[in-house]
Amino acid sequence: MVAEFTVRTRHLIKEYVMGTIVVKALQGIDLEVRRGEYISIMGPSGSGKSTLFNMIGGLDKPTDGRVYIDEVDIAQLDAFELAWLRCRKIGYIFQTFNLIPVMTALENVTLPMIFAGLSMDDAIDKGVELLKRVGLGERIHHKPHELSGGQQQRVAIARALANDPAIVLADEPTGNLDLRTGRDIIMLLKQLNEEKGVTVISATHDLKMIDVSDRVIYIRDGKIDRIVHREELDLQVGRVEGEEAG
Amino acid sequence: MKGRKRGSAVEESGIERQITLPLGMAIKISFQSLRIRFWRSIITTAGIFLGIAFLVSVLVSTSITNAVIAEAEEGIQARQIWLIAISLLVTVIGITNAMLMAVTERYREIGTMKCLGALDRFIVELFVLEAGFQGLAGSIGGSLTGVILMTLASMARFGARNVISHYPVFEILIWVVGGIILGVILAVVGAIYPAYRAAKLPPAEAMRVEI
Question: Which domain holds residue A112?
Fold first, then answer.
């Protein structure tokens, strides 16, 4: 069954209770993402981007509303199915890279394949291939602390793609990187999106991301402020680059 | 089946349940984690070492005394039992504390593993293996140290020839094996609660924790 929408949310609400105060991080998000799209979720910090990221990725439970991945309500999955979904269907990329510090680049990339049941040999072959693809063929046996930020993020991208996921979720993937390295990472994500047809959803406030996105979803105060399509984007590039410079 | 109730959507989508972590891989990961925190691991192991060494010393010295002086029938005294119990209790508290720290500083790593598809069970397994290895190393060392020290002490007290000719090999073997098993059990018991608590957290929450 091929669903038209890879990701769909229905009236997604998330509230955090902090002492006596209820913080409304998401206030009813309705979102539809098509297969193969490259989506950027933009918004100032505290707007609910990361919360939305966590909900879509099945990393946290919504207070109310639904998340559908390939038309399956993920709230109905048990622990095993949820683990399977995180392992096989979704690849995660984080601002802080989140590589396992005790493992080499190659071991980090092979771990999700081991979870998925691949043999060690197959996992290593594929891991090496993926690391070559992201430009780290020479550094597969390095530990994360021996790699630069950009290189760590490349390992994280290779790891996210390990089990050929349908969706790659990226939470501020360029947030800890300098301008040029960030641009390289964005281009790499875009290339992989085109090559493999993988859906990319990226929470960001990096304006460089706008250039490559099919759609940009602006979030403000836990609500969708506006959605801008690619065709409309081209008209705005001038303004965007002006903002970046300032 | 549970799946039937939820309608056919889940089954049709091709979502499966099979996620694996081969034991060999789990052992390798926990070894790496111990190696990278070598000195901390040594301290935890030393705690187990001391507790088990004390226990085995008391048992072995009593066994040898009884064997050498046939009519002595010196039992383990109540005071000694108290001392043993308290030293083992301190050992368990020490291990639990060390594991709580080891788990807390690795919340992010735990969250990441769950993002990659790890089941809660894998997280517990990794920490229990880690603690088990520390328990094994500490209690093997502790048992052997206890036996050697008490054998030498008895030799000084009763004369080497007397001790060797009456040496209660079988009994001492039981104390050694028992000490090793107990050491591993104590280490694992101390680790299970912190590991279980960490494994239960939703990944997003685990990764949000700032230390």
Answer: 36-61+78-245
